[in-house]
Fold this sequence. Notes:
Layout: H1 3-39, E1 44-49, E2 52-54, E3 57-59, E4 67-69, E5 82-90, E6 93-105, E7 111-116, H2 129-132, E8 136-137, E9 154-164, E10 175-181, E11 187-196, H3 198-206, E12 213-222, H4 225-231, E13 233-243
Parallel strand pairs: 4-6, 8-9, 11-13
Antiparallel strand pairs: 1-5, 2-3, 3-4, 5-6, 6-7, 9-10, 9-12, 10-11, 12-13
Amino acid sequence: MTSAKKIGTFLLIMAAAVFLAGTAACSKKAEEQANQAESQPSMTEFEGKVQSAYGKYLYLPAARGFDIVTEGFDAASLAGKDVRVKGEMIPDKPSIFEAESIEEKGPAGTYTNVYQRTEPLTLEDFIDVKTREAYTLLTITSANKPEEWEGKGQVKVYGKLEETPAKEGSQEPPAVAIVVSDDSGKEVGRILVDSISNYARYYIQKLRLFDKFYFYIDVKDTVERRDRTRNKNLFHADVKFAGLF
Length: 245
């Protein structure tokens, strides 16, 4: 083989080596970028008028199927306002959309940032579908049958929420009760509500067009027989969730 051919062969081999090395480097970089994209989900945006908001939760029609959640922020301040929300879904909680930022739309059509996530999200009062399925349906037929609810623990009951404002000057909190009726619409009894979680309040607000729905409650103490007979007050309870089913 002549010197010219040897030099040509050597250069060809070197060029091939450089090409293969470059290809491998590009492939590695592309793989690293793909892995990074998987570990950092892309952000999603929703725009529209806030229809419901309570505590850290808010709802936009554009985000149908999701409850938008903030942290360390009073979402109720945005009720009825036009906003743009940027955030991401939570894989193990498919109904929750974690807000990264929220911008409020002004009269001139410009947006101003009103929320930026700076704290880890906590969902202390959130109840997922699987947990709600464990709440059995409670049927009440009479105020004189405490065995129908005593010892039942976590149940759901169909009824109507009734809130009576406290008297002016009174130190007593507003009276809240779930009115339970029979199939004919006749009142059977009243469940005295001691507390309602923010998550439940948020859903009660979303259900404002409905008179009756299901309340997911923790059954507490039965009231005295005299009060049950006279006022049909049945027992105390804490409300954890509300829904149409």
